[in-house]
Amino acid sequence: MIGAALMLASAFLPYAVAKDGSGVEAVSQAIGTDMSKPSMVTFTRVYMDNAGQYVASSQAYVTLVVTMAIVLFAVLTLLFAALRKPIAAMIFDILAGLAFLAQNFDFSARGVVPSGNYSWGISYYLMFAAIVVALIGSIWLFVAKRRIPA
Description:
Blueprint: H1 2-10, E1 16-18, H2 21-31, H3 40-49, H4 57-82, H5 86-109, E2 118-120, H6 122-147
Antiparallel strand pairs: 1-2
Helix pairs in contact: 1-4, 1-6, 3-4, 4-5, 5-6
Keywords: Membrane, Signal, Transmembrane, Transmembrane helix
Signal peptide: 1-18
Transmembrane segments: 60-80, 87-105, 125-144
């Protein structure tokens, strides 16, 4: 359950960290949002607010859908872990991991993170650890439920 909670928290922690303040300050002033340590949710909100202006509308919606998938799968992993349903928790944990990898690939391919302006933030590293912890917890719960008859 701890891993699933950390996955959910990762959506709101810094996904990227600014390397140097000058370029990021200009962007922050232009869009009216502090972009020195943006989270996945902040990136999504900024993309949606500026769709068609600074960001292609299609890219804004792709980022919205992928981020929503990460959060939804993390919530479902947490729910099924709390309900002691290890197989469902494993499935949604893996889906959250795949959605997170898709987002990382997208941001890397477009040169958003890592880039000259940004390096990966704590959320990037915490999410990988949380996925592994949630998966190990689900496997442990699965084994424990098989050993003790209900």
